[in-house]
Design a protein that fits this description.
491 residues, alpha/beta, Metallo-beta-lactamase, Chain A, nine-stranded mixed beta sheet, seven-stranded mixed beta sheet, 13 helices, 25% helix, globular, disordered N terminus, binds zinc ion
Length: 491
């Protein structure tokens, strides 16, 4: 989407220039203060403006920021909620149906290191509204701890699929080996689809990683094969050339995902752009790397552009954490994008909303500095994609962001037999679960089972249950399951 479209949702009063007039005011304010030889601190600039205004004729009371619904100096007219949003101040998972042609971006995890109570490893969920219960889903990276947030966001485990990895640093995929066996165990009986770049040699590509990840999980896979798994352990890997420039990674049903290479010390890191034709909406995630020309070029005009980011205060980091400033400088300068540069990329690409995800939340004391570094170059709509979990709804006319209100305890989405159907398939009378491939008798010595304590010793007699220890064969009655939740499917 081009810069002109930035004001697509503007009210008639705003005459389509509200966002820009406010931005221009910022620029004029700073330049004007400089021209008058005063420091550009808020106080002096304000005094200067007031003095010159009163020196003229009777001052008219005006709003220098322009008539936007929310006011402020960086909030455009299109930053506003709309009726599909049930609560303007927080997102309550599972309570909103994403309307057709609307996009929802959830920052499931947002840090490289260290993991904290506020931030899991990086993962961004992009959902495309179909008007149905379950939107189309795309996961960009799956860092450590991000899956617990996906589950809390009421993403049904069997429906986790289409995972795009930017590169093979563990903070971007550590939850993949944890997630896939449990997904299969939870009813994800169909293969998982994972996409990612090749490396300099075959051993450095995503195919090699996935093959050996499954090897690493061999004990876990065999163990879970005592349960219904179907083809849930199978992983279809799409490995593409890390060097391709804006090459197509995914092209299905009006959605294209493209990639380009990123400078992140080692070859094999990429950025992604998702374009959704029907809705005319797009999303970019740079993954990790240095600010680069390709991201400026291929990220242009995206509705939402997400960069990684790092605060650039090496001397302060040295004081706070003890390690020498040179170490911070070296790390930032070969691996990462400092906030100044993220802001510069935003200025080059002019998204409707810019965000930084994959950053170390530095605490309240450094929030103003963090924003100031971004604002050195970018004065448009901006947010940090964290702490976890921030949710951004995107329509053609408006953008709105909220924090998700997540349950602290176990609250996964209620099991729904419709998850097991192929698209368009009618609900059958019964659904039989796949037969386990490896019963415990085939993977465990008899003496270990013989050591199990006789259940009569711990069950009170009136609640005694005879243990079910051979696969009983389980057949679901989908209509009964749905009726128990008040859902009728045949009306
Ligand atoms: Zn990282
Ligand atoms: Zn990395």
């Amino acid at each position: 989407m081009s810069d002109e479209n930035n004001t697509a949702g503007a009210s008639p009063e705003a005459s389509g220039t509200g966002a820009h007039s406010r931005r221009d005011f910022m620029k004029v304010g700073a330049a004007g203060a400089a021209a008058l030889g005063v420091s550009a601190t808020g106080a002096s600039a304000a005094e200067t403006t007031a003095t010159s205004a009163s020196a003229a004729t009777e001052p008219a009371v005006t709003n220098p920021y322009g008539p936007s619904p929310g006011g402020g100096i960086s909030l455009p007219d299109y930053f506003k909620p709309w009726p599909a949003i049930k609560n303007n101040n927080f997102y309550m998972p599972g309570t909103e149906t994403l309307p057709k042609n609307e996009m929802r971006i959830s920052f499931l995890g947002s840090t490289p290191w260290p993991p904290t109570q506020l931030q899991s490893g990086t993962s961004i969920l992009v959902e495309l509204g179909t008007g149905e219960d379950q939107p189309r889903r795309f996961f960009f990276d799956m860092g450590n701890g991000s899956i617990r947030n996906a589950i809390a966001m009421q993403v049904p485990a069997p429906l986790i699929n289409d995972i795009f990895l930017t590169h093979l640093h563990a903070d971007h995929y550590a939850d993949l080996p944890y997630m896939y066996p449990f997904r299969a165990f939870s009813g994800g009986f169909t293969p998982l689809r994972v996409y990612g770049p090749s490396g300099r040699t075959p051993e450095l590509g995503i195919k090699h990683m996935v093959k050996h990840m499954r090897e690493m999980n061999r004990w876990h896979e065999e163990n879970f094969n005592a349960c219904p798994i179907g083809d849930g352990f199978e992983i279809d890997v799409t490995e593409f050339d890390w060097k391709q420039e804006n090459g197509i990674v995914y092209d299905q049903d009006g959605v294209k995902v493209r990639s380009w290479p990123r400078s992140h010390v080692k070859d094999g890191a990429v950025a992604y752009r998702l374009d959704w034709e029907d809705a005319g909406l797009s999303f970019v995630f740079t993954g990790d790397g240095r600010p680069d020309e390709l991201s400026a070029k291929y990220g242009k005009g995206a509705d939402v552009f997400v960069s990684e980011g790092t605060i650039d205060v090496p001397k302060l980091s040295a004081m706070k954490l003890g390690a020498p400033a040179e170490l911070w400088e070296y790390t930032i300068d070969i691996f990462h994008t400092m906030y100044y540069a993220a802001g510069y990329l935003f200025k080059q690409t002019q998204p409707r909303m810019a965000a930084i995800c994959h950053y170390e939340y530095a605490g309240e004391a450094l929030e103003a500095e963090s924003v100031a570094e971004v604002r050195a170059n970018w004065d448009g709509l901006f947010m940090f994609g964290g702490p976890d979990v921030q949710v951004v709804n995107v329509s053609k006319d408006a953008i709105w962001s909220r924090e998700a209100n997540l349950p602290k305890g176990a609250a996964p989405a209620a099991m729904d037999p419709r998850w097991f159907l192929k698209p368009g398939e009618a609900l059958p009378e019964t659904i039989s679960l796949p037969t386990p491939r490896l019963p415990r008798e085939e993977q465990q010595e008899q003496f270990v089972r013989d050591l199990e304590i006789d259940p009569h010793k711990y069950y009170p007699p009136d609640v005694y249950r005879k243990p079910v220890q051979t696969w009983p064969g389980v057949t679901l009655n989908p209509r009964e399951m749905l009726a128990a939740r008040g859902i009728k499917v045949d009306d």
